[in-house]
Amino acid sequence: MGMRWREFCGFRIEEAQRIVEKSLVELGFEYTKKQVNPSSIDTIIFGSDEKVTEYELRDSIARIRLVKVTGDPLLRLLSKIAGRSILVDEACIIDVSLCDEDFLRKLLAKIVENSDRKPWVLNHPRFRISWLLRYRVKRNWMKYLSGKNF
Predict the structure, then answer these.
(1) Of 51, 64, 66, 112, which sits with the fewest C-beta atoms within 10 Å of its C-beta?
(2) Distance (Å, rounded) from C-alpha 129 to C-alpha 62?
(3) Cα separation of 58 and 73, whole Å?
(4) Residue 141: how many other CB atoms lie within 10 Å
(5) What DSSP letter does each residue of the chain carry, written as one string?
(6) How far apart, in whole angstroms, are the C-alpha atoms of residue 7 and residue 66?
(7) What pLDDT was estimated at residue 104?
(8) Tell me, what's the pLDDT at 43?
């Protein structure tokens, strides 16, 4: 069955797609790409009202989903009260499933290598006020990047 890793990433969804696709090609993995509906959790919690990009790797090695994060329920409520949009698209979720730990380590290292900034650094309103959440996100990334100098 494989493990699952799901974490925030400080890239716009289009940038995340480009980096993930480049990383998969450089690692030599063949994949199919499709747009699927977001889960109800993605919609309710993260405000994801757009299609989710899903990569299915050949031979079912792994499935990667990129989910756009627009804002949590509190931010959406404050936005409506303030009468202006405080939601941004500077974050997404990378959801990797059906994989083994070795694949995940290689993929995350390649994503970091192919990006011009650290993916665990988030400029989204949800993270600006929560140092604990920022710490948790970085720790989850670093868990699989141990031994690397980032």
Answers:
(1) 51
(2) 34
(3) 36
(4) 22
(5) --EEEEEEESS-HHHHHHHHHHHHHHTT--EEEEEEPPPHHHHHHH---SPEEEEEEGGGS-EEEEEEE---HHHHHHHHHHTS------EEEEEEEEE-HHHHHHHHHHHHHHSSS-TT---SHHHHT-HHHHHHHHHHHHHTSTTS--
(6) 10
(7) 94
(8) 57
- State residue 1's pLDDT score: 56
| Residue 78 structure tokens | 């404050």
Amino acid 37: pLDDT: 79
* Average pLDDT for runs of 10 along the chain of length 150: 87 94 96 84 60 89 88 59 57 90 94 95 74 90 76
Q: What angle is formed at CA 110 by the lines to CA 108 and CA 115, rounded to 5 degrees?
A: 95
**Of 40, 58, 61, nearest in space to 49 by CA:** 40
What's the distance, CA 83 to chain centroid? 29
Domains of the chain, CATH where assigned: 3-143 (3.30.310)
What does the pLDDT read at residue 28?
Answer: 95
Of the candidates 145, 70, 60, 63, which has an alpha carbon nearest to the alpha carbon of residue 110?
145
**Residue whose tokens read 């989204």:** 124
